[in-house]
Amino acid sequence: MLRNHTFFGLVEVNEAVAKVLTILNEKPFQKIEGSRRSLYETLDRPALRPLPSAPYEWAVWHKAKVPPDYHIEVEKSFYSVPHSLVTQEVESRVTERIVEIFRKGRRVASHTRATQAGSVHTDPAHRPKAHQQHLDWTPDRLIEWGARIGGCTSALVEHMLHSRPHPEQGYRACLGLLSLEKQFSSARLEAAAGRALAIGACSYRSVKSILEKGIDQLEIEPIPETNCPLHENVRGAAYYQSSASTGKWGLVH
């Protein structure tokens, strides 16, 4: 119908097609009954479903195994799941604003997505009851295990547990710390724990770094004294304060 027309732009083509589109859709078929319009009304329209109420939202999926602290790591932040899922495989669905966690297709947790890496999001309903054993791991048992290695290790474990909003959030770090005994021996772990406590670097990564670099085997160097020797040209702060008030400054030869 438009083969003999000359167009000078896509807009002109679309306008011309729109005018003859109704005629084309209602034109009867040559070999079968009906038209494009009649087939659409009888076949296509009944099968159509309403458009989604919300626009499509991009999501990224991750798999994880629930650790003893029942917080899985998703894109460098931590989100709680029901404590009964510890050791089980779950999937997380991450959108721009929400992190949803699923177990065998059933949603078990939902959190607002973290805006800062390393943040911890805990739903109080996910915590185990006070009288329940959490897979046989409790703060007391972890501290006792640390005490078997030494007093510094025990103190470090206790600090790692109590520095978190919930003690269970420190389970993973404590278990990692205590596992270093197999790799480096209990004596070295105790020495590294003492070093970490002395410098205020009370974390699993700090202790592991101390052990890997052999810093635990070095002697702690005493801090040198910084007292200035007595000398006639060393006047002290009082001299300069008095000179500043009078506007007189002495020359040092």
Cα shape:
elongated
Give helix and strand order, one letter per element, not per position.
HHEEEEEEEHHHHHH
The number of E-state strands comes to 7
Helical content (DSSP H or I, runs of 4+): 25-40%
Number of discrete domains: 3
Report low-confidence residues grouped into runs of 5 or more.
130-135, 239-253
First-residue to last-residue Cα separation: 107 Å
Strand content: 5-15%
How is this fold's topology laid out?
Layout: H1 10-26, H2 36-47, E1 60-65, E2 71-74, E3 77-80, E4 89-94, E5 98-103, E6 106-112, E7 120-121, H3 139-149, H4 151-162, H5 171-184, H6 186-199, H7 204-212, H8 237-246
Helix pairs in contact: 3-4, 3-5, 4-5, 4-6, 5-6, 5-7, 6-7
Description:
This protein folds into three domains: 10-47, no CATH class; 60-126, no CATH class; 139-217, no CATH class. The chain contains eight helices and seven strands; from the N terminus they run H-H-E-E-E-E-E-E-E-H-H-H-H-H-H. The protein has helices spanning 10-26, 36-47, 139-149, 151-162, 171-184, 186-199, 204-212, 237-246; strands at 60-65, 71-74, 77-80, 89-94, 98-103, 106-112, 120-121. The strands form two sheets. Strands 1-4-5-6 form a four-stranded antiparallel β-sheet, with no helix packed on it. The chain has a three-stranded mixed β-sheet with strand order 2-3-7, with no helix packed on it. Strand 4 (89-94) and strand 5 (98-103) form a beta hairpin. Helix 3 (139-149) packs antiparallel against helix 4 (151-162) and helix 5 crosses helix 6. It is elongated, with a radius of gyration of 36 Å. Mean pLDDT is 82; it is low at 130-135 and 239-253.
